[in-house]
Amino acid sequence: MTMNSTEGCLASSPPGANLDPAVALFHSLSDAARLAIVQRLASGEARVADLIAELGLAQSTVSAHVACLRDCGLVVGRPEGRQVFYSLTRPELMDLLASAETLLAATGNAVALCPNYGTETTDETRNEEAGR
């Protein structure tokens, strides 16, 4: 059986469809540390010690985020002796991130400037906040 381009697509879901799994997926990727771990694992498997050294994060931070990604089914661990090598479970995750990069490029700074979720604060936003 082949799947057409709209089967399983969130955009084609009927109103009231259960979007909880998609919400959980996007939430699992909404943290900068988890996203950095996913991006690093896209280039190959790594141990927690490797992620600590390469990403400059604390051991407890890396371990907690790897556990979260593992619990979400996005990362899997391969034990080897006393070490565990982590890798992405699905290559489709990189397709999702590539699509996100395309969308971000197309929207310019719109997402970064979003008053609810943006990462940048403009002078106008600072002035509005000061006037409240």
UniProtKB/TrEMBL annotation:
Q: Which UniProt keywords apply?
A: DNA-binding, Transcription, Transcription regulation
**Pfam families, alphabetically?**
HTH_5
Matching entries from InterPro entries are given as: ArsR-like_HTH, HTH_ArsR_DNA-bd_dom, Metal_resp_trans_reg, WH-like_DNA-bd_sf, WH_DNA-bd_sf
HTH arsR-type domain: which residues?
A: 14-108
Keyword Iron-sulfur, does the record have it? no
Extract the Gene3D superfamilies matched here: Winged helix-like DNA-binding domain superfamily/Winged helix DNA-binding domain
Give GO MF terms, alphabetically.
Answer: DNA binding; DNA-binding transcription factor activity
In its keyword annotation, does this UniProt entry include Ion transport?
no
Q: Which domain of life is it from?
A: Bacteria
User: Matching NCBIfam families, A to Z?
Assistant: HTH_metalloreg
Q: What is this protein called?
A: Metalloregulator ArsR/SmtB family transcription factor
Give the species this sequence originates from.
Answer: Allosaccharopolyspora coralli
